[in-house]
Amino acid sequence: MALRARALYDFRSENPGEISLREHEVLSLCSEQDIEGWLEGVNSRGDRGLFPASYVQVIRAAEPPPPARYANVPVGGFEPLPSPAAFKPAAQQPPPEPFPPPPAGYPFPPYGGSYQPSQGSDDDWDDDWDDSSTVADEPGALGSSYPDYEAAGGGASGRYRLSTRSEPSLGPRGAGHPPGHPHPPGGGGAAKSSATVSRNLNRFSTFVKSGGEAFVLGEASGFVKDGDKLCVVLGPRGPEWQENPYPFQCSIEDPTKQTKFKGMKSYIAYKLVPSHTGQQVHRRYKHFDWLYGRLAEKFPVISVPHLPEKQATGRFEEDFISKRRKGLAWWMDHMCSHPVLAQCDAFQHFLTCPSTDEKAWKQGKRKAEKDEMVGANFFLTISVPTGPGASLDLQEVESQVDGFKAFTKKMDESALQLNHTANEFARKQVTGFKKEYQKVGHSFKCLSQAFELDQQAFSAGLNQAIAFTAEAYDAIGDLFADQPRQDLDPVMDLLALYQGHLANFPDIIHVQKGALTKVKESKRHVEEGKMELQKAEGIQERCNIISFATLAEINHFHKIRVRDFKSQMQHFLQQQILFFQKVTQKLEEALHKYDSV
């Protein structure tokens, strides 16, 4: 039997995706499960959409309708008499307060988001690298946003139980009402002193999906091991991630084509040699893709560098393989240079697990996929400075973040422009410049051939000199065609990597901004006498943790940016100098041929 509900109050739709209700109207429900106080169903007029869950009462199939003669008697007994206000004519009843819009993204997918590996033809997953089991099938898997940590017990060595949960209290909207929603007409409310900070209505925003909202509102709880702690320290430029005490690098070399299933499937494997182990391992692109997905999901306030793009065709062409290897080398450099990412267990497993040990690889893979320190619990792992001088001024933090937001916008526009200019210039060098110089060389060659028709001995030297000049210009054309590989291509590779970083920061900033909004809301409640000061201070303290992490990531970005662009611009100019030296050398050699004429 289809689920049904009866409207308790009138509701007028004001946003796309909503439907209007009339009091006593019977609706068909698509699901009894509400999403942040909203249900989906079909009204008596056949309109399908969203409406407030608090405005309807679900009709249970197990409860038979009362006899007609007792239709005015509630099932299960008599209810208290309604208040005098209920006897007012309908026209005098207070209308419902304006209702907030439903969450964006209607119709709703299941709550919670995670990175999904790209499913292109570049590297598929139909092999024995993974098996048919999934994390969701195993006990203790990350099946919900907040696992039941209470059952885990406590007292384990090196593990600390951290919790931001507070005792639930009924806000002025009453229990069971979605945060931010007003009471239905005639409903009562709790005391003003027990106000709570409202949840974001858009449950698919980055702030919500990352777990930032749940953490700030005090709903995170878990055990943090010593190895999971991420420390932010105060450096000369402000908050910084604590440096990796054992820095290392990792080279990516010798991409080779390999086959399996008796040659039916081909793929490219890259040799990785981490400096801290010296042991080489081989990884396919899909292994990089899996690792990126785990890290992007685990670290919502860290910019995980993007991988080089996939390609559906030409995957085994030499130019594509070489370009991808260079892109992966940049990616690896940024991974190893990040104090947090470099020490992540999933990354270390990726670098050190022997290529031939399938069992060990799968065990490490499943362990990473069952990591409990994700979502709201990730923020429990962040340790920030304490004591005098360590607190953050939220107004100053907001100003710094706004400044960085403007910086990333301008840098992104400039990077796009430079990338377009460099790409266009490289194209001209490879095709246009080469062709033009070789046209000049061909013209000189035609001239020398014409002069050769004169058999005078004294003109032989001139003919040879002009022919050599023609060859010099032909060689210069080849130099122009080959030069972008040496200088412009590396610049564009770096720009591509940083465009990935710049695409990450809007989400990182959104998490920090969302936390700051909750702090402002809690302060307003305190000023209005609706919230205890202690609860508001807890929200601000948790916002500080997110702010420390955000500023640490911003400082790391600037530090690496200066390092990378300094090195790359030096390389570009050095290659330009070498290029023009080669051109000059060719022209000087041609010039000397005329000395003996």
Automatic annotation (TrEMBL):
Comp. bias regions, Acidic residues: 121-131
SH3 domain residues: 1-61
One annotated GO molecular function: phosphatidylinositol binding
Keywords attached to this entry: Cell cycle, Cell division, Cytoplasmic vesicle, Endocytosis, Membrane, Mitosis, Protein transport, SH3 domain, Transport
Residues annotated to bind a 1,2-diacyl-sn-glycero-3-phospho-(1D-myo-inositol-4,5-bisphosphate): R284, K286, R324
One Gene Ontology term, aspect cellular component: plasma membrane
Subcellular compartments: Cytoplasmic vesicle membrane
Residue ranges, annotated region (Disordered): 84-195
Chief location category: membrane
Family: Belongs to the sorting nexin family.
Name of the protein: SNX18 protein
Lineage: Eukaryota, Metazoa, Chordata, Craniata, Vertebrata
Gene encoding the protein: Snx18
